[in-house]
Write a structure and sequence with these properties.
This protein is α/β, with parallel strands linked by helices. It is built from 12 helices and 9 strands. The protein binds S-adenosylmethionine (SAM).
Length: 289
């Protein structure tokens, strides 16, 4: 069975929002895999690159930062350790619980607040935060109107000159990943990829968790246009992991500091090169209010 629009309207466990998360997305994240995602070499590359890009635009601590779809709290904990006042929301109860535990693990610099919530209806007052992290919600908002709603909410709560860090999964991510992992030869995965390439609508009708879940995969220009349409000034659209995601020996090279530095440099040199922007797992558009 293919997951349809109806399923996208089912309610989450989040009581105080009026929005829905597709039940298969909730089920996927309730497996608990997200907490480990950033620990392998590729995850570390994503983490380091995301942090270094965010760092370029953040004001000096203490700033007020809203981490929308903050998951198990890796980024929120990092920013809290740096002295920022961070509020995290996420619609998946397991993630909220994991973020609480992670925050309690750094008692001197806890996350300021952690709650269930949806990117499309934030509870923060207007013009109250210095930066909004949106590292995940835009993947799972498969309707363009919903993504614009989420970005408009970010715009509303941001102070003037505040930044939104809007991350999307690249339109070509499943093609590159499928080829790299040797799963493109599975006809079921090949069909998923063909649909991704056609319209960005990623659906996984199989029970194979590693084929991901209901999502939208952005073309770089689509991500930029959504940020612009919301009213933001577009600072940049950047690839996060870039072509380094394709290195067959990334794991070994990542363990060697000199190689790691070289990989990070190489990705950085062409991070905004339009002709290869889509060759990456994740893209980030940085918008300024
Ligand atoms: C791939 S995880 C990323 C987690 C974290 N931001 C990170 O980068 O490590 C995607 C996150 O987006 C959250 N999410 C999905 N739909 C959302 C929505 N409508 N509003 C807010 N968060 C959402 C999920 O619950 C999940 O925690």
């Amino acid at each position: 069975m293919e997951y349809g629009i109806e399923s996208e309207r089912q309610m989450t466990n989040s009581e105080d929002n009026h929005f829905s998360l597709p039940h298969e997305v909730t089920r996927y994240y309730e497996e608990g895999l997200e907490a480990q995602r950033l620990s392998g070499a590729l995850g570390q590359l994503e983490l380091l690159r995301t942090k270094e890009i965010i760092d370029r635009y953040l004001p000096v601590p203490p700033a007020t930062i809203l981490d929308v779809g903050g998951g198990p709290g890796v980024y929120a904990c990092w920013l809290a350790r740096d002295g920022h006042k961070v509020h995290l929301i996420d619609p998946v109860p397991l993630h909220v619980e994991q973020a609480r535990q992670a925050s309690e693990g750094q008692p001197e610099c806890q996350i300021a607040s952690i709650s269930l919530g949806d990117a499309r209806k934030l509870h923060q007052p207007d013009v109250s935060v210095d930066a909004v992290l949106m590292l995940g919600p835009l993947y799972h908002l498969t309707d363009r109107e919903d993504r614009l709603l989420a970005l408009r909410e970010a715009y509303r709560v941001l102070k003037k000159n505040g930044h939104v860090f809007a991350v999307g999964i690249s339109r070509f991510a499943s093609l590159l990943d499928g080829l790299d992992r040797g799963i493109l030869s599975d006809p079921k995965f090949m069909r998923i990829v063909q649909r991704d390439l056609t319209n960005g609508q990623h659906r996984n009708p199989t029970n194979e968790l590693s084929y991901f879940t209901t999502a939208f995969f952005h073309h770089p220009e689509e991500l930029a246009s959504e940020v612009l349409e919301t009213g933001f000034h577009l600072e940049k659209t950047l690839s996060i992991e870039g072509f380094a995601a394709l290195l067959h020996d990334l794991d070994e090279r990542w363990d060697d500091q000199d190689h790691r530095t070289l990989i990070m440099d190489a990705v950085r040199w062409v991070e905004d090169e339009p002709s290869i922007l889509g060759i990456t797992g994740h893209l980030m558009a940085i918008g300024r209010k």
